[in-house]
């Protein structure tokens, strides 16, 4: 592999020490007022320590908004951004703020939310004073204002771009320029203009229905974006200016992906206009403004790797400034090839750097990286659920100041029993700390349940989690003994034991007679199934097993006691599953409790109306969940700990398994 990723590059008045950037991601790490607190600072410092040349702070609002993103609208906020810049500069890491304005009337919505808050306080005061009638009246007013604010927000997200007055647009432009000036005072290196959201909506043929100087032709629709660029250059002449260019791409079925931004042909023309306007760098990215984060941050198996690269390649041919590419670049080899082929100058590793903050340093050292799975479970789902961002594979995200691998005070001999994901992570961390580690695995390969999880449609990429350990454990001199069961006599020869013995598919709890029952685990492991299949249990495993069977051409029903299936699945994945279910006519029986199974017939009850439900099948697939495996630890005479599926009352998902393994390995 070449080493172009590690080559420096001049961008405007800056020199990046390498070609690896961290693109803007909403993190949720900021304080409630949008300032950069300890959690944010530690997270971004960790990326700089890992060797990133250029870090962009995502979604920095130049006005006071209700949205949970960073904000820089007042001089009193400058010191926290200066502290962030100074911290990253210690590692020769350049820092940019991505400036954006939401596509709604921020002051208007803000006033309604503030008035609702005043009414809520008045209601509480009246309640405390014993005036129930006044309290009720004020709460009704609070509800009315809150509903009105959300109704306006919903309306504006679709129509503000067309309805905003020229004066409103002028005020927004001035606020963005003023924010850039504050960034310059704080010692920030660059501004990334967020070409999506308001600017992208104005550029868009789909969303912009104006008939003034900002609507109609490409020149008119892009006029405001160019005015914003000019205003930033005037307000902060010392800063490098990057433009995030959102492209509306085309799905395999011919439909458009994204609404805000420009289709490829117009986007390439606009890139040339940006170059002529004096922009210093262009990042070609996927357009959004659809309400579906899966469009811009697609899950595994949905789109090809680096699916926006073809447009970046065309942009690079036309412009004189460096071009960055972003989106599903998961390996160093992929990044190297992009640079070798001359398709882009800089590679953005976003979710990938959540999985492994040391990507840039490892590009030099040659150590293998932990590659992102694109599962969206810890990152996208967290942000949509108003939690802070993290990666299922990285136990340190969001807690970099307190959770890190500590060198061992004393080298010990450590045994890990079980080579599922929890045991493998425990082995890695213990070995990184300097311990001598032996892993005992009774099967003929490492990985445990990950091999089953990789079988359903679009899920094969999850195997990257195992491939990482196959590479890193030999580098750390971990001795992996396959086809080996360790007994207590053997384990007592070690100084410390980590038990990661996993779980098994639980038995059916109801009466079952004369029926053909197989477990979901057996199905995913290759057990032959025929005829009509009824999957009992609509959790993640059941849903994925049902989709797997449906794609094999079988008639499938899925039965779940809750009111919906796959409650823990990513919001970016569920639309893909639902579409697949529709195409294969998968029947969903929700709110359904199965009381007994006799002669391959489910005798069930609808829990909402207590009506009887009868479901017939040739094969019944038990996907009701897993139960931890047990180990007789009574003869262990050395310290031991359980991790992963076998460590608690409930079995663990991949994130919980990784974190319990990491903690166990780090505390020996």
TrEMBL record:
Domain NADH:flavin oxidoreductase/NADH oxidase N-terminal: 5-365
A molecular-function term among this protein's GO annotations: metal ion binding
UniProt-listed InterPro entries: Aldolase_TIM, BilR_N, FAD/NAD-bd_sf, FAD/NAD-binding_dom, NADH:flavin_oxidoreductase, OxRdtase_FMN_N
Keywords: Coiled coil, Flavoprotein, FMN, Iron, Iron-sulfur, Metal-binding, Oxidoreductase
Residues of the FAD/NAD(P)-binding domain: 412-630
Coiled-coil features, chain-numbered ranges: 118-145
Cofactors (names): FMN; [4Fe-4S] cluster
PANTHER family given in the database record: 2,4-DIENOYL-COA REDUCTASE, 2,4-DIENOYL-COA REDUCTASE [(2E)-ENOYL-COA-PRODUCING]
Family statement drawn from the similarity comment of this UniProt entry: In the N-terminal section; belongs to the NADH:flavin oxidoreductase/NADH oxidase family.
Name assigned to this protein: FAD-dependent oxidoreductase
């Amino acid at each position: 592999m070449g080493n172009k990723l590690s080559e420096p590059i001049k961008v405007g008045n800056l020199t990046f020490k390498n070609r690896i950037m961290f693109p803007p991601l909403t993190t949720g790490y900021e304080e409630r007022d949008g300032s950069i607190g300890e959690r944010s600072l530690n997270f971004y410092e960790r990326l700089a320590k890992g060797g990133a040349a250029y870090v962009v702070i995502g979604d920095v609002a130049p006005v006071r908004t209700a949205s949970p993103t960073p904000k820089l609208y007042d001089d009193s906020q400058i010191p926290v951004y200066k502290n962030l810049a100074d911290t990253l500069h210690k590692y020769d890491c350049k820092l940019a703020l991505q400036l954006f304005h939401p596509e709604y009337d921020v002051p208007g919505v803000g006033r309604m939310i503030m008035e609702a808050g005043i009414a809520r306080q008045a209601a509480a005061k009246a309640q405390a004073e014993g005036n129930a009638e006044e309290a009720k009246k004020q709460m009704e007013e609070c509800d009315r204002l809150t509903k009105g604010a959300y109704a306006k927000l919903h309306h504006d997200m679709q129509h503000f771009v067309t309805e905003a007055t020229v004066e409103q647009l002028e005020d927004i432009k001035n606020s963005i320029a003023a924010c850039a000036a504050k960034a310059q005072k704080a010692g920030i290196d660059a501004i990334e203009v967020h070409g999506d959201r308001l600017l992208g909506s104005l550029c868009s043929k789909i969303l912009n229905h104006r008939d003034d100087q900002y609507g109609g032709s490409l020149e008119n629709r892009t006029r405001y974006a160019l005015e914003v660029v000019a205003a930033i250059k005037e307000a902060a002449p010392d800063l490098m200016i990057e433009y995030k260019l959102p492209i509306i791409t085309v799905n395999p079925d011919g439909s458009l992906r994204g609404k805000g931004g420009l289709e490829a042909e117009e986007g390439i023309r606009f890139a040339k206009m940006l170059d002529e306007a004096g922009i210093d760098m262009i990042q070609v990215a996927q357009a959004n403004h659809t309400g579906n984060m899966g469009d811009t941050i697609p899950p595994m198996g949905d789109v090809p790797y680096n699916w926006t690269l073809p447009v970046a390649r065309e942009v690079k041919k036309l412009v004189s400034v460096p071009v960055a590419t972003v989106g599903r670049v998961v390996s160093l080899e992929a990044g190297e090839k992009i640079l070798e082929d001359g398709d882009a100058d800089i590679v953005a590793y976003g979710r990938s750097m959540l999985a492994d903050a040391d990507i840039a340093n490892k590009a030099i050292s040659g150590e293998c990286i932990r590659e992102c799975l694109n599962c969206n479970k810890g990152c996208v789902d967290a942000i949509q659920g108003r939690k802070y961002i993290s990666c299922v594979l990285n136990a340190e995200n969001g807690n970099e100041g307190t959770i890190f691998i500590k060198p061992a005070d004393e080298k010990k001999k450590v045994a890990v029993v079980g080579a599922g994901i929890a045991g493998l992570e425990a082995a890695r961390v213990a070995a990184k700390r300097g311990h001598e580690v032996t892993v005992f695995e009774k099967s003929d390969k490492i990985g445990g349940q990950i091999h089953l999880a990789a079988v359903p449609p679009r899920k094969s990429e999850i195997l990257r989690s195992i491939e990482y350990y196959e590479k890193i454990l030999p580098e750390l001199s971990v001795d992996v003994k396959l086809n080996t069961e360790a007994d207590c006599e053997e384990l007592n020869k070690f100084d410390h034991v980590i038990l990661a013995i996993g779980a098994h598919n639980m038995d059916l709890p109801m009466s079952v007679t004369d029926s053909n029952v197989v477990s979901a685990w057996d199905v995913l492991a290759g057990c032959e199934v025929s005829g009509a299949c009824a999957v009992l249990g609509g959790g993640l495993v059941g849903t994925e097993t049902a989709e797997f069977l449906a794609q094999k051409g079988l008639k499938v029903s899925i039965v779940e006691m809750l009111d919906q299936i796959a409650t823990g699945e990513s919001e970016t994945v569920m639309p893909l599953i639902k579409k697949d279910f529709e195409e294969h006519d998968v029947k969903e029986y929700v709110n359904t409790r199965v009381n007994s199974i006799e002669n391959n017939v489910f005798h069930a009850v609808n829990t909402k109306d207590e009506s009887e439900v009868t479901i017939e099948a040739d094969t019944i697939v038990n996907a009701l969940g897993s139960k931890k495996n047990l180990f007789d630890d009574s003869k262990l005479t050395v310290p031991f700990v359980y991790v992963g599926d076998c460590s608690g009352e409930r079995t663990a998902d991949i994130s919980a398994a990784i974190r319990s393994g990491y903690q166990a390995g780090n505390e020996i």
